[in-house]
Design a protein that fits this description.
Blueprint (H helix, E strand, L loop, with lengths): L12 E6 L7 H12 L3 E4 L6 H10 L4 E5 L5 H14 L6 E5 L6 H10 L3 E3 L1 H19 L12 H5 L3 H16 L5 H13 L6 E6 L5 H15 L5 E7 L8 E3 L13 E7 L11 H10 L4 E5 L16 E6 L14 H4 L2 E4 L7 H15 L12 E3 L8 H18 L27 H27 L1
């Protein structure tokens, strides 16, 4: 049984997910953590994912492998359909791995592997190989460079063919992270720069980890597609690499529900050796997307601290997303992005203290920019609840953001002004002051039981 991870020659990327109608994600979470520990960049989709979603993500992300768990009984149809879709879309090089415990019997495993699935792991494989041995088998099968699969044509890039876009971005990433991979610089860089459409707006979204950047981006994408159904969007999402292993969890797709659209392209990037919140390959990746003639590009950085402002160097407009959990008001004076951001969002506005946070951030923005002649309500600071459908704060932020994009890039886009911009009332199922009401009930019952036990003990002692 193997105890050490295989060390691949190439940078390996995997898409991981649980199959459609399957809520059992414990096993796939174990495997994606092991893949990360082995230095793999893992694009995790979560549970209940259709074959189409998995395949499209695998192509957009230019991965070498797909790892799926399936415990819902429809594994024969599901795995075969994933395989068929990959062949149909010209991505037959992507290896498929799966498992389902005792749900997938030996005869079915053999049939699936004959069909073209790289490996279906059984409980016996787990006993024989161990977890690390199973992961090593996956790594050895996927240790190849996708750039060697087929040639890239500029025509495919300009026609927004996702496979070509993904392959070109991989060339860029490898040119920065691997010494022997200079194909992009030698062959493509000058041509891409020459062909890139300079008037494609780039919106940079940055902020603290867990502030809801991905959820907010998803809401912006949904509104943009609704207002401009003939336009296309590209999203570059950056997450940090682990310095120790080189692996990364690229998990922003989990929060995005509006990206499953033919006019949306999403690519997840790991920071790799950049030591900042953006990837070294990010500027070149943006040039590639401009060459592909997308109408709007979103760049979402990894979570940042108080002194990070890298997003401003790669975007036309920058958005800083935060929550009310920043500490004392004096902490706002340390946040550099309050000086540089074009718009500031306080997300998760249903949390306690958000109204105070909105006031304090507006005042800090006013001081930073010397805007004492403007009312606080007119400053570009917004309270949003991204996980609430059609939230007025998100609508207002979206309208102002796109208006700024139109003005700065001199575009002829027409915004739909018939949207709700003001909340009629604060809609909450559970008021903030009662969020712990279940704990209060449990605590009251426990105190009563403890009091009863004490009374019984007191009575026993008094009798004896």
């Amino acid at each position: 049984m193997e105890t050490e991870f295989y060390r691949p020659i190439h940078k390996i990327r995997f898409v991981t997910a649980s199959s459609l109608f399957d809520g059992h994600d414990a096993s796939i979470n174990i495997f994606r953590r092991l893949l990360q520990a082995a230095g793999t960049e893992v694009i995790h989709l979560g549970h209940n994912r259709s074959a189409e979603e998995v395949v499209n993500a695998a192509i957009d992300e230019d991965v070498q492998g797909i790892a799926l768990s399936s415990y819902q009984g429809g594994h024969m149809e599901y795995f075969k359909y994933v395989y068929d879709l990959l062949q149909e879309k010209g991505a037959g090089h992507i290896r498929i791995f799966g498992g389902g415990g005792g749900v997938i019997v030996q005869e079915e495993i053999q049939e699936l592997e004959r069909y073209g699935i790289a490996k279906i792991f059984s409980p016996e494989d787990g006993r024989r190989l161990g977890l690390i041995g199973m992961v090593n088998h996956m790594l050895k099968e996927t240790d190849f460079s996708t750039s060697q699969i087929s040639a890239i044509e500029l025509e495919d890039l300009q026609q927004q063919r996702h496979l070509a876009i993904a392959r070109m971005i991989t060339l860029v990433e490898n040119s920065y992270s691997q010494e022997n991979q200079k194909t992009y610089e030698l062959r493509w860089k000058k041509e891409i720069k020459r062909l890139a459409n300079r008037n494609v707006p780039v919106i940079g979204i940055t902020g603290t980890g867990g502030a809801g950047k991905s959820s907010l981006t998803d809401e912006l994408v949904r509104r943009f597609l609704q207002d401009f159904p003939d336009k296309s969007i590209a999203i570059l999402s950056v997450d940090p690499s682990k310095q120790k292993t080189g692996g990364a969890l690229l998990g922003d797709r989990i929060r995005m529900n509006s990206i499953h659209h033919p006019q949306v392209y999403v690519r997840s990037l790991a920071t790799r050796g950049s030591r900042t919140e953006i990837s070294l390959a990010l500027k070149d990746a943006i040039e590639i997307l401009k060459t592909a003639n997308f109408d709007l590009i979103f760049v979402e950085t990894s979570g940042i601290g108080q002194g990070n402002t890298e997003v401003t160097s790669i975007s036309d407009l920058s958005v800083y997303v935060m929550s009310s959990d920043y500490g004392a008001p004096s902490q706002l004076e340390k946040i550099d992005m309050l000086d540089f951001a074009d718009l500031i969002v306080i997300n998760k506005f249903d949390r306690k203290g958000s109204e105070d946070a909105l006031r304090d951030v507006r005042k800090q923005y006013q001081r930073n920019h010397q805007l004492f002649d403007r009312a606080l309500e007119d400053l570009p600071v917004y309270g949003t609840i991204a996980n609430r459908f059609n939230h007025a704060g998100v609508n207002r932020f979206y309208q102002d953001l796109i208006a700024k994009v139109i003005e700065k890039n001199q575009l002829d886009w027409k915004l739909d002004s018939k949207v709700r911009l003001h909340e009629s009332k604060n809609q909450q199922i559970i008021p903030p002051q009662r969020e712990s009401y279940l704990y209060e009930i449990v605590n009251t019952v426990r105190q009563y039981q403890q009091f009863t036990i004490q009374q019984v003990d007191w009575l026993d002692n008094s009798i004896n």
